[in-house]
Amino acid sequence: MALCYRLTITLINIIFPPFAVILLTGFGMDTLINCLLFLAAVLPSHIHGFYISCTYFARRRRVRKGRYPGGPKSFIVSDDVLNGGAPPDEVRRLARRAERGGARSRSRAGRRRGSGRGGVWEKGDVAGGGGGYY
Question: What are the coiled-coil residue ranges (predicted)?
């Protein structure tokens, strides 16, 4: 269902970007900006529409995973897009949890993945593009 919604928004954005922005944000400042961009030149309207839809779906995914969606973004005014479609009280709860450290996000580089060798490199392991002992 979510994939169909995302594909529908993408197809509408290709054909007529202001309508895609209306579906995501409602009638507001983002829609007005996109309509003005569409009247000025079609390409900036498409870029703005895809920017709004990508931000919305990325933040929606974060909220569904129980993480804070993030703060304000440039050129986006709608709270619905900034919150990923979540109600404001849910976003406040996630923000408080993130401040307390309950939703710590570890960077991918900080995670240890491997076969459980305790960080010991063996001959043939690849690090930095080459093989051998490191």
Answer: none
CB 61 within 8 A of CB 84: yes
- Alpha-carbon torsion 6, 7, 8, 10, what sign? positive
From residue 45, alpha-carbon distances to 52, 97, 111 in Å are 11, 36, 39
Domain coordinates in residue numbering, the chain: 2-104
- What CA–CA distance (Å, rounded) separates 28 from 36? 13
- What pTM does this model have? 0.69
Q: How far apart are CA 109 and CA 118, in angstroms?
A: 16
Spatial separation of the C-alpha atoms in residues 73 and 46, rounded to whole Å? 18
Mean pLDDT in residue range 72-80 = 88
Task: Say if residue 90 is exposed, middle or buried (CB neighbours under 10 Å; 0-12, 13-18, 19+).
Answer: middle
Nearest partner of 78 among 13, 69, 8, judged by Cα: 69
